[in-house]
Design a protein that fits this description.
The chain is of the alpha/beta class. Strands 3, 4, 5, 6, 11, 15, 16 and 17 form an 8-stranded mixed β-sheet that branches. Strands 1, 2, 7, 8, 9 and 10 form a 6-stranded antiparallel β-sheet that branches. Bound molecules: S-adenosylmethionine. S-adenosylmethionine (SAM) binds next to helix 2 and helix 4.
Length: about 375
């Protein structure tokens, strides 16, 4: 499929770059479309909610962030209540999840006093939203913002990543009768529109592809997320060496499907991936199996993935919904029930989304993962 490279200013810029230097990897395209300093999708504004492009779980209901806050406070207790402890969120969006988490985690005595907040966020506009959301929730405790998780100062950590890994750039590889080729973004015959193209045949590419997908029949496709694997390895070694744990929630599967999962969404609708770089969100399914292997190889204990619905139910989302409903109006009760179903049902986010825990090696049977 081909689309006008000139549909957005960033598209025109990328087309000019490809004309000069040749096709680019899907990962480079994705990184530019999402985080180009001038025109990247996340850099300008706030894409969340009904009026935006998509709605994430914390924007569906406060219950999501509250249960995650309690999960973190419980984990803090299990690791011996270190003080200080880093509470880190990767890609906090509007800051809603963290604000709800901190409010709920007050229930754990001593927890908020021990917490130092660190937010890993690429977008200046969203950093400003997060500061607004967290100001009242953390009086006297200003968060620090980081460009990369690896910049976090030493110490034990509790880390949350909801819908973060799906935004990390992936590379795509196609199996042909002659072997693996990288799928690239180039130009269509008119020299202007962006189009997928196959890179040169290169036997060495097979080394980049995990064992399972590597055995695919011709026509198969493999997606690899080097940034996600690097982050999982960093996380694994960090919690193994300095203590703590992480909760990763995202959409994807324990094993990749062998089909392309890269998708573009704008105004809650699927779009052509190459149509409007900078104007549409781009995401790819998270390969939980590959993340788990990378973290475990670095020394961490990995639990899950479990489906989001089961995870939230095990943490008590139904009890929380009932408590919220007690003082609610009839209309609010309906909304609470509908939010609960959206977060937990197979027709909503309950099965497609999964939770994975990456912790220091001595932790067993964490809530939600038993
Ligand atoms: C889909 S949003 C999820 C937001 C939030 N976690 C939620 O659930 O509502 C992705 C978030 O990650 C940030 N982000 C995306 N790519 C990033 C990167 N490479 N480095 C740091 N932040 C990034 C975005 O700006 C945004 O805050």
């Amino acid at each position: 499929m081909t689309t006008p490279g000139g549909a957005t200013p960033l598209g025109r810029r990328l087309a000019a770059r490809i004309a000069r230097f040749g096709p680019m990897t899907v990962a480079d395209y994705m990184a530019a479309a999402l985080t180009d300093p001038e025109a990247g999708y996340y850099m300008a504004g706030d894409p969340f909610g009904r009026a935006g492009d998509f709605t994430t779980a914390p924007e569906v209901s406060q219950m999501f962030g509250e249960l995650i806050g309690l999960w973190c406070a419980d984990l803090w207790d299990r690791i011996g209540r270190p003080d200080p402890v880093w509470l880190v969120e990767l890609g906090p969006g509007r800051g809603t999840l963290m604000a709800d988490a901190l409010r709920a985690a007050k229930a754990q005595p001593g927890f908020l006093e021990a917490v130092r907040l660190a937010l890993v966020e690429v977008s200046p506009a969203l950093r400003a939203r997060q500061a607004e959301a967290l100001g009242p929730a953390a009086p006297g405790r200003a968060p620090i913002w980081l460009d990369h998780a690896g910049d976090l100062p030493d110490g034990p950590l509790l880390l949350i990543a909801n819908e973060f890994f799906d935004a990390l750039p992936i590379r795509q590889f196609e199996k042909t009768a002659a072997g693996w080729r990288e799928r690239l973004v180039g130009l269509a015959e008119d020299g202007e529109r962006l189009a997928f193209t196959a890179g040169p045949e290169a036997p060495a590419l097979a080394a980049l592809i995990p064992q399972g997908p590597r055995e695919a029949e011709p026509g198969g496709l493999a997606e690899v997320c080097p940034a996600g694997l690097g982050l999982a390895a960093w996380l694994g070694s960090r919690v193994a060496g300095q203590g703590g744990g992480a909760l990763v929630i995202d959409y994807g599967a324990a094993r990749p499907s062998g089909r392309p999962s890269l998708q573009a969404v704008s105004r809650h609708r699927s779009q052509d991936v190459l149509a409007a770089p900078g104007d549409a969100d781009l995401t790819a399914h998270v390969d939980f199996g590959a993340l788990a292997e990378a973290a475990a190889a670095a020394g961490a204990r990995v639990q899950g993935p479990v489906i989001q619905g089961r995870f939230l139910e095990a943490l008590g989302i139904e009890t929380r919904a009932a408590a919220l409903a007690r003082d609610a109006s009839a209309a609010q009760r309906l909304a609470i029930q509908s939010d609960l179903e959206r977060l937990t049902s197979a027709a909503g986010m309950g099965e497609h989304f999964k939770a994975l825990a990456v912790t220091q090696p001595d932790l067993d049977s964490l809530p939600g993962f038993a």
